[in-house]
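Hi support team,

I'm opening this ticket because the web form for multi-chain structure prediction keeps timing out on my end. I have pasted the exact lines I submitted so you can reproduce it. The total is 232 residues across two entries, so I didn't expect it to be a heavy job. Is there a limit I'm missing, or should I split the entries? Thanks in advance, R.K.
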Amino acid sequence: DGGITQSPKYLFRKEGQNVTLSCEQNLNHDAMYWYRQDPGQGLRLIYYSQIVNDFQKGDIAEGYSVSREKKESFPLTVTSAQKNPTAFYLCASSPRLAGGSTDTQYFGPGTRLTVL
Amino acid sequence: SQQGEEDPQALSIQEGENATMNCSYKTSINNLQWYRQNSGRGLVHLILIRSNEREKHSGRLRVTLDTSKKSSSLLITASRAADTASYFCATFPANAGGTSYGKLTFGQGTILTVHP
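Hello R.K., no limit was hit. The queue was backed up. Here is the completed structure from your submission:
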């Protein structure tokens, strides 16, 4: 899991509540990503960020929001607008996005979110 | 169907046997990467092969890439029980612009079980 930490490991949310998942990296990477993984499925990109104070929507951004105020931090908020939020959420980082086509991604250990 | 589809979906073998997983994709790529995920954990990068490469080795791993068939294979030789995990291929697009810029697209994975 390298130098990326995610917290909490498990999170339970009541319907209608917003929750924020933490992602911190000490790898000095420019780019950070949030993915969602459903059982038996691959990863789907929610949001990504190339640099501080900049982020882009991924393939399934509806119902989610992010911020990138610091290079090392990229928190994800799952809002009440997300209709089916129960899933495994993975944060990743890579050294650079622009021109970094050969860069690999380093993943955190994940947060499992369950809506009660 | 999705960019990056693995085959088979599940593979069960005995320790010492070789395991072969395949990945097919639809659009032109810059590179293809293989990742491993232990149950309930984050992904770990295994190997990257560029579009102008045909074969690459790393320890007991051998990856091939056939761009004419838009397919790749991952071979794990002399498998061990510790190789039990899900394996994902991920493609990086050839077009360095637009919304696909910098985004890896993951397949749904192959679940490998190696019996002692």
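A quick check on our side: The mean pLDDT of chain A is 91. Let us know if the file doesn't open in your viewer.
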